[in-house]
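Blinded run. Sample ID left blank on purpose so nobody reads anything into the name before looking at the predicted structure. Input follows.
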Amino acid sequence: QAREFARLQQLNQFLRAAIAALPPGLCQLLSPADAIPHILCLAFPGREGAIVTRWLAERKDILVGSGSACSAESAESSHVLRAMGCSAAEARSSLRISLGYASQQEDLEAFLAALPDLVTEYPLPG
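Blinded prediction complete.
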């Protein structure tokens, strides 16, 4: 169990560092640094998280969640994200990456590699 926790922490840190290196404004990390390592919450400012989630699934075969797990089927913004201090816009643009025993760094690399296509195919309005 300790070994798996450390592995998930390593994957989490890899993704955090990669997100920090992305162009400003593309993707925002919402999860605090001391959050559990198997869930990472991100926002895509100006884009709807549900659309990003669907786009990733349909175009790239990458499965992530939108918002927080406890409100995934609700039209209301997540009380968890509100408690984290997220604005309504951040909550609408958020998605959730869950890491588990089957998650590999290659999965995270595929997610990151999909982002340039996302920007091209789902441009910001205006």
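Unblinding after everyone has recorded impressions. The first helix runs from residue 2 to 20.
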